[in-house]
């Protein structure tokens, strides 16, 4: 009977019973480093790792849109480094905990975030504009007007 599974409980915990609930974990005795062992990967530093940013190029500009729900424009920074790199950063503070509150789930992230984008050569760095509406940051980086080359027809003799 040991080979027949019992679906209604009373499982035997035997390593010889293929239907036993005990699952052998070959790694249980190894001491793997935890996330806290890597401070650069701690929760505080990776709060907005998944901050979503769209980058589209139009004939007139490069447009970046970042989803930053719940943030005010004062909590977000848009910077340009060395006229080549656009950096969007900010911080969302954690809610203050009241000792009388019972938390059932905490899924919203808090902490710092930063996203960087190397800009192409065809941008006007002195005309960058940013706006924030309904939790969406829009950064518009205008493009330099590329002068179309003068094309002259050459008559072919012959």
Automatic annotation (TrEMBL):
Residues 48-155 form the CS domain. One of its GO terms (biological process) is response to stress. Residues 44-158 form the SHSP domain. Gene3D superfamilies: 2.60.40.790. Keywords: Cytoplasm, Stress response. GO terms for cellular component: cytoplasm. It is found in: Cytoplasm. It comes from the Eukaryota. This is 18.5 kDa class I heat shock protein. It comes from Durio zibethinus (Durian). The lineage of its organism: Eukaryota, Viridiplantae, Streptophyta, Embryophyta, Tracheophyta.
């Amino acid at each position: 009977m040991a080979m027949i599974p019992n679906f209604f409980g009373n499982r035997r915990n035997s390593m010889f019973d293929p239907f036993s609930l005990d699952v052998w974990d070959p790694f249980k005795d190894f001491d793997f480093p935890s996330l806290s062992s890597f401070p650069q990967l701690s929760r505080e530093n990776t709060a907005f790792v998944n901050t979503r940013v769209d980058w589209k190029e139009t004939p007139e500009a490069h447009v970046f849109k970042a989803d930053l729900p719940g943030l005010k424009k004062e909590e977000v920074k848009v910077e340009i480094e060395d006229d080549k790199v656009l950096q969007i950063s900010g911080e969302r503070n954690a809610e203050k905990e009241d000792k009388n509150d019972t938390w059932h789930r905490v899924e919203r992230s808090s902490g710092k975030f930063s996203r960087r984008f190397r800009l192409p050569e065809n941008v006007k760095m002195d005309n960058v504009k940013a706006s924030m509406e309904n939790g969406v940051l829009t950064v518009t980086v205008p493009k330099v007007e590329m002068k179309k080359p003068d094309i002259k027809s050459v008559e072919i003799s012959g």
